[in-house]
């Protein structure tokens, strides 16, 4: 017999003694530093409750929660989430450029479980606009900004009430139409990856539940497609309601906190629709000379490949440009020390490096640089060795091709780092 577990604190409750005990045990296992601003019992408990839903034995609950939180703390540090001002919805390009519909979080309206209400309409959602106009890393970055801002609002509610909170997300599906691109987004695993990345790995239990209302019958087709590849508990967190949802909703939240469009009495709650871009606004590569100069590497299934950059001066800038023939993981990791020869570098390339033991300085995310090519830069704050890592661990059979260029520069001096780690003068800008 194994030891059964349960959710030790539910939304709207103060943390139980058992929850506080588990929070303390997770804290004791943390390897990464936790910033004082983020270091609240509720924030740690969000990782515990996610683990409580997935595991039965107490040790498994603690171990899984600690590992997930450690990974999140690495990303927080790499992304500077605790040391730079958080972007509000007014500053987030996903809303200012109307890539997604915007519904503001109602910080003065809660359901019966102390969860802030967040209403949105999906009729205007067009996945292809964002996919054709923004690089994949920006899409992920914008969502991190969005979730971090939402977390701060929930943290303020918890500080005010002393009780566990989250966002109760009501998504009005009336008028939403699916198209082939959206089906591809669902069936390719991209939707599953984003759900895993935000709702499970980095901001667990922050949006809980997500309730879709006014769903049409055809929605069951993509739902059945995506449900088997989603993590455990997906159906509990993302609930579907047809047009007769209002009785259920009124049991959860007062009529005054439900918009008129959904049968409530609130005339103030609005949703700003997304805007579909025309094809002539889609991103296109401009520099054929740059594309002709790209070097190609292949990342085999279940493997990683890396390019190494030794930096001996603070303030140097590493910049990169790449396109892919499918989705790959990409991130940058750092270790102190440098100076090996090219021969050592070649030898090192044949061996897998252990990124788990390195400092993550550019978040390791799954990107698709097919429709929009990736280009970005990193200003080096420390001297040492930087590894640009491409990962294909998620693929069992298919290798990935990456066409790329990497520069390292300071002032007027710019050098290209080749795939064999050799250097040459560079005049290419991107």
TrEMBL record:
The record ties this protein, via CDD domains, to:
SEC14
**Pfam families with a match to the protein in the record:** CRAL_TRIO (PF00650), F28H7_8_C (PF25883)
Q: Which InterPro entries match?
A: CRAL-TRIO_dom, CRAL-TRIO_dom_sf, CRAL-TRIO_domain, Ctg-1-like_C, GOLD_dom_sf
The chain positions of domain CRAL-TRIO read 92-270
* Superkingdom classification of source: Eukaryota
SMART domains listed in its UniProt record: SEC14
Report the protein name in the record. CRAL-TRIO domain-containing protein
């Amino acid at each position: 017999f194994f030891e059964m577990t349960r959710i030790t604190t539910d939304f709207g409750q103060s943390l139980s003694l058992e929850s506080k005990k588990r929070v303390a045990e997770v804290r004791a296992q943390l390897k990464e530093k936790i910033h004082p601003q983020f270091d609240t019992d509720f924030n740690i408990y969000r990782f515990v409750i996610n683990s409580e839903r997935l595991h039965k034995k107490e040790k498994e609950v603690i171990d899984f929660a600690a590992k997930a939180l450690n990974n999140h703390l690495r990303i927080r540090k790499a992304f500077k989430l605790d040391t730079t001002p958080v972007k509000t919805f007014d500053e987030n390009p996903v809303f200012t450029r109307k890539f997604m519909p915007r519904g503001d979080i109602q910080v003065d309206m809660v359901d019966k479980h102390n969860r802030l209400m967040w209403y949105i309409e999906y009729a205007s959602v067009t996945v292809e606009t964002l996919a054709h106009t923004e690089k994949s890393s920006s899409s992920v970055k914008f969502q991190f900004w969005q979730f971090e801002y939402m977390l701060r609002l929930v943290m303020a509610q918890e500080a005010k009430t002393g009780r566990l909170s989250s966002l109760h997300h009501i998504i009005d599906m009336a008028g939403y139409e699916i198209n082939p691109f959206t089906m591809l987004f669902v069936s390719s695993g991209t939707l599953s990856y984003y759900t895993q990345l935000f709702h499970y790995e980095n901001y667990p239990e922050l949006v809980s539940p997500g309730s879709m209302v006014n769903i049409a019958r055809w929605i069951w087709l993509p739902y059945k497609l995506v449900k088997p590849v989603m993590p455990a508990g997906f159906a509990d967190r993302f609930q579907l309601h047809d047009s007769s949802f209002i009785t259920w909703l009124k049991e959860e939240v007062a009529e005054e906190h439900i918009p008129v469009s959904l049968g409530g009495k609130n005339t103030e709650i609005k949703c700003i629709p997304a805007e579909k871009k025309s094809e002539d606004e889609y991103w296109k590569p401009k520099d054929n000379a740059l594309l002709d100069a790209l070097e190609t590497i292949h990342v085999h299934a279940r493997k990683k490949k890396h390019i190494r950059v030794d930096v001996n001066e603070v303030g140097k800038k590493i910049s990169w440009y790449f396109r892919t023939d499918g989705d790959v993981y990409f991130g940058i990791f750092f270790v102190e020390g440098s100076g090996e020869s090219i021969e050592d570098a070649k030898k090192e390339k044949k061996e897998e490096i252990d990124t788990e033991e390195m400092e993550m300085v550019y978040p390791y995310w799954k990107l698709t640089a097919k429709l929009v090519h990736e280009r970005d830069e990193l200003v080096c704050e420390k001297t040492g060795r930087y590894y640009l890592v491409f990962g294909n661990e998620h693929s069992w059979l298919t290798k990935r091709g990456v066409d790329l260029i990497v520069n390292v520069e300071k002032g007027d001096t710019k050098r290209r780092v080749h795939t064999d780690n050799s250097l040459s003068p560079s005049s290419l800008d991107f």
